[in-house]
Amino acid sequence: MAIKGGDLAKLLPKRKGCKDCGFPTCFAFAMKVASGAEDIDKCPHLDPKVKEQIREMLAPPILPVTLGKGERALTIGEEEVVFRHEKTFYHQPGIGVLISDKESETDWERKLKAVLEMTFERIGRILRPDLAVLWAESGDEGKYLELVKKASDASADLPLVLMAPLDLALKALEVCGKDRRPLIYAVTKADLDGYFPKLKEAGVPVAVKGGLEELPEVTERLKAEGMKEIVLDTGSRNLWEVVKEQILLRRAAIKQGFRPLGYPTIVFPCFMADDLEGQYMAASALVTRYAGIVVLSDFVPEYLYPLLTLRMNIYSDPRVPMTVEAKLYEINAPSPDSPLLVTTNFALTYFAVAAEAEATKVPSWLLVQDTEGLCVLAAWSTGKFNGETIAMAVKKLGVEEKITSKKIVIPGLLARIKGELEDELPGWEVVVGPREASGLSSFLPEFAGRG
Amino acid sequence: MAQWKVPVEAYKGRILEVTIGRGSKAVKIGGENVFAFNQTFDEGQWPNSPKVAVEVWDREPLGWSEGILKVYGDSVKDPAQWTKKVVDELSPDLLFFYLISTDPNEEDRSPDEAARVVKAAYEAAGGVPFIVYGVGNDSKDPEVLRKVAEALKGENLLIGPAIKEDYEPIAQAAKDFDHCVSSQAPMDINLQKEMDVKLSRILPKEKIVLDPLAPCVGVGLEYGFSIFERQKHAAVSFGDEMMQMPMLANFSFEVWKTKEAKENEKMGIMWEEMTAMAYLVAGANILVVRHPETYRRVKGMIESYKG
Ligand code: SF4
CA-based, 20 to 30 A from A169: which of A82, A263, B160, B222? Predict the structure, then answer.
């Protein structure tokens, strides 16, 4: 629900010939503020109440929440659309591991190590999980505080969720420190009278737990106390019920502009299935449907890696083509006399070519030329993929020093550039390859066999 | 405080109901006038839950992971026995029968032979509906699929893929022998629409299923996910009649081609399961999976939904 400059202008003082904000009219200023280019503070003549009202209008429909600090800080919320194709999703959900104070210390250590150290690399990006959810399950306060101590000692900036009765969570906050900004989980309607001003003074994000009808009342109260960093939990623990609620919450915030529900969410696949496999499947559905924090009972690489990859996919910006690094890739351990294939840096093209070439077991080199993410034909028709650009990439990437075969295979769709590439690369044999990557399965073995 | 009104929406479009197969095991897909898994909002109806097909080849599989081969054992040496084994083990909603041997660049099996193999497998399946796919070669597929269609006349298979280069003879074969056809436009909504217009001049819209291609996790899933969502929108929210056919998400082949799945079966299963979950949420009406574990799990997930 982007705010319109015209609506905003109606609230400005409209002083004749004022220009104190640096703009000729209130209206001109309002347009800039609405687009986010100017801050409303630049108008000195606003009534504080009106200013607050304007700030509220300008706030994103789903408020941001930041947990942790430093390099590991996690920001969620600030989403603007219901479907990623309408624009893009912004903040990837945090992926958390649940650690119970009932578990053994060995498990605590193992899980903390996992959340801190499990990392994966994919197309040049580092994928890793985000946070630890510390659960007071045992009822033994001492034990819980011990767990909190252990987790905060393990890393100074790992985002934490303190999942405990509020009294205990507030004690735990003293153990781990407020400035690491953990999330207190959770405030319910029943807590509203007993925990002010304590909760407000804590100054950290809080989760609110309650049914959809109940949540607005609680968030409004927190807001009235000046607390804005709020995370919602509808309390449901059945996957499809949660999916439904996630959709309703997103619609409420984006389509209805209903502020009391305009906060990011936390969901618990760890309580939705009996085993890890089921949990991760549930988590994958929730990553596609708006979750802000996703909690699993354990991290295993075989499940975590696909989940983090899916998250990267769903949160990639549909307005920007997906690319891979433009460089010389090695397929099946090539030697200097292996052939050279060339393609674009549009990720889908690269994946298809690399997978097909790899499957043939024939050693080869793959030169990925930067086409700004355009596929073969689109890149060619805009002058980003032709004899000249390929020859430039060959020279720039030092291909000639590495490859003595002097054989270069171009995509079949670009048969027409054979001549120009031969002119640009004297001494190279230019071969027209298959039109589709799938053709490599028969083309490459034959080509390699030919010698 | 402002009162909250639950944001229930109403849409003007409805997905067509398509039946695949014949007799008591025929499956119905589509028929919904809501997005996937939204029926609980009382927004509309979602009469047919998504169905899951299991991938079978017309020859012994190459490079399939051990866990799958262990379940099917020696049966995979013969497509009919393999088919029967899958039916016995999983009672799948449908079988996805892939005519990989007809690829002219490889084995180049003849259309007559292909039809014989499909028929034998179909007869072993005890009435489980078949999706029969050629390799996507526009000169070979029409011949092969015509023979298949003829050999199983009236069995109401889903045959395909009909692509822009060969949709005409394939749709004609489906019409002549009473089958459904899949309309494949590689992640291109405009082309999809164009194809649908042309196909619907040859046979009824209730005989068409859309196959926009379904890339898997890590290899372009986001494109497929958004194409599925956009097509479902066009059909349901905007009432675009040329988008109102149910959608097929055929990703098993791509999943098991990834390095991750090939090197680590446990990860491969999850790769396939998560891809399945994403397309379920995005609105697929049929999924194609390969691993028996994926089949059981995904079915379980669909069944756990109580609309
Ligand atoms: S400073 Fe305020 S009152 Fe003056 S012109 Fe700008 S917006 Fe209007």
Answer: A263
